[in-house]
TrEMBL record:
InterPro entries registered for this protein in UniProt: DinB-like, DinB/YfiT-like
Protein name as catalogued: DinB-like domain-containing protein
Gene3D superfamilies the UniProt entry points to: dinb family like domain
Pfam family membership, one: DinB_2
Domain spans labelled DinB-like: 31-152
Domain of life: Bacteria
Natural source organism: Ravibacter arvi
Amino acid sequence: MDNRDETLRIIDLINDTYESEEAWHGPSLVGSLRDISPALAEARLTPNTHSIAEIVYHLTTWRIFVARKLQGDKDFEIRTPEKDWKVFGMVDEFEWETLQMELSLSQDELVSLLEQTEDDAYLEELVPGKNYSYYTLLHGIIHHDLYHAGQISLIKKGLTLRNFEERDVDTFDSDYGYGQDPY
C-alpha cells in the first residue's frame, strides 16, 4: 500500500492557510477577506498598487494554474497581464461576491484533486512543462496564499486608517471640541 502522508499534510496546510480560524501565522485568507465591502475591495492605497479585488482574482488564477498542472495540462499558462492581474474599475456587490465565490471554488477544486491522489509518488515528479516538482508547486501555492493574505490585511488596514484620517480632517472644523468624539 502506498503512502499519502505528505499529501494529507499539504491538504491540511492548504486548508489552514485558506480558512482556519486558528492558524498560527495569523488571519487565514478567508479571515483577511472578512468585512471587506465592494468599495474597499476596489480601492487602492496608491495609484500604482493592486486593489484587494485584483489580488483575489490573482489568487484564484494561480490556484486554477495549480489545478490544471495537477490534471497534467502541460500547455496551460497564465503569465500574461490579462490572465494574471485583471484590472477592475468599479467593483459592485455582485462582482465582489463572484470573485470570492470563484476563490472558494478554486479551493474546493484544488483540495478535491489532491484528495484523489493515490500516493505521494507524484510529489517528486516534474510539473508538466516546468522544471520544478509538484512538491515545490504545492508548497509554492501555500506560500503565495500566505503572502497575499498578509498583503490584503495590510491594504485593508491602510485603507481603513486612511478613511478614518480623512473623516477626522473633514470634522476638524465642525462643532465638536478638541478631545470630543465626533462619531
